[in-house]
Amino acid sequence: MSAETPTHQTATSDSALKVIPEQLFEARLKANALAESFLKQLVTLASAALVLSVGFFWDALKAKNGVEWVFLLPIAWLSLVLAAFVGAIGVAMLVNNLDVPDQTMAERDALSIDRAYAASSLPVVCACWGAMIGFVAGIALFGAFAARQIMF
Prior knowledge:
Elements lengths: L3 H58 L10 H26 L24 H30 L1
Helix pairs in contact: 1-2, 1-3, 2-3
């Protein structure tokens, strides 16, 4: 009777071990999809804010009182363009890393991380943070410019 128990436990643990890699792969794909969606939204918002800020700037130029703090606009526009560019590169990295999900990144990375873990790799995390910081900086600078025009 004692000999049957370890065999049953081994069979259960073997089937559990087969399920775990599938669940991990699905979790990795979801993380990749979330990161990709986040970056796509930042690219869209940065592009839209850039277009709207240019339109607002032309309206501000037509104002009778003049325009103040114009130096903020080129910095805001550069931040928004960089946010869109870095976000697009991040999306490209995520899509590229899904091409061969079981291939390792040993050629590019000494850590040999599975390519499916790319959503948490340093380049993708840097792209997410870079796009987010660029977007927030661009919006904040444009908001400061717009607030100054309203108060002026």
